[in-house]
Hints:
Blueprint: H1 11-19, E1 25-33, H2 39-52, E2 56-62, E3 65-73, H3 77-86, E4 96-97, E5 108-112, E6 133-135, H4 137-144, E7 149-153, H5 157-160, E8 163-165, H6 176-187, E9 194-198, H7 203-214, E10 219-223, H8 226-237, E11 243-247, E12 256-257, E13 276-278, E14 287-289, H9 292-297, H10 304-310, H11 314-324
Parallel strand pairs: 2-5, 6-10, 7-9, 9-10
Antiparallel strand pairs: 1-3, 1-4, 2-3, 8-11, 11-12, 13-14
Amino acid sequence: MNKNLYNTQSKKELMIKLASEKFQRNTYSFYKYIEIKNIEQFRDILYIKFDKLNILGRIYIANEGINAQISIPVHNLSKFQSMITQIELLQNTQLKKAIEEGVAFYKLIIKTRNEIVAYGLPPQAYDMSKRGKHLNASQFNKALKDPNTIIVDMRNKYESEVGQFNNALLPEVETSKELLPKVTKMLEKNKEKQILLYCTGGIRCEKASAHLIKIGFKNVNQLKGGIVQYAHEVSEKKIKSEFIGKNFVFDARLGERITKDVISNCHTCNNPADEHTDCKNQICHKLFIQCASCSLKLNGCCSQKCKKITALPASEQYKMRKKSKR
């Protein structure tokens, strides 16, 4: 294995390195559905180029395209923008800035996958040349008022739990693979109605809309740039946000606040809360919502059982983790 193509530092070393940085970072995301023939070679080329610019993040590459969430040093942003214009496969890629900043990533990870969105669909189930119509924030808000409209949240339960559009259909599934079958079933008698899809940044809606069109839906639309771009447009154009609460994100921040509304509850005490956290018990690592009071009482754990485990000596916890992996 070429060590120059992978991170070899521990999380502790990476956190110390990140804390010592004297410059600002901004978080961005981008995706592109495009045929990539040699994904391993493309992966290695990107790693070298991104690493030279001190970019951190998580990037997935498949034959169908690329999906990326990255943290870029502010002083390297123009270099990055210039670089992607010189890479043929990434030309005309829309770069979306995060709504709220914070420590998002500790290292650079670039992986190859079968799909950039893990729906598990066979190629014949969609045609990426026939996708839903893209609507900007104003157009989306207008479409929401149409009584012939059905709005669908194309995200998992833990995402929609903390933020959503009013009156949206919520599939409430735990994984992407469950999402499209559930949505298709929910919409099966409404193929003639106007369908509005939305997700975090737009990538899941692209393939979902292509699939719905393929199976006979007549009027499929999607929120351009997802919730991220919607929030920027709402702020810039001074229009009302029909999305309430937080936008869940898949990095260390775990969320970006869109409105002040708190629509979810602490999973421990059921009081209003919308802060996601990972259980501090390394064996559990459950993602859940917890208020500040319960976090303090349980030391950031999801239960008294997990709290007791985290109180054990490190050597004992290590033995338990190894046993749990068998």
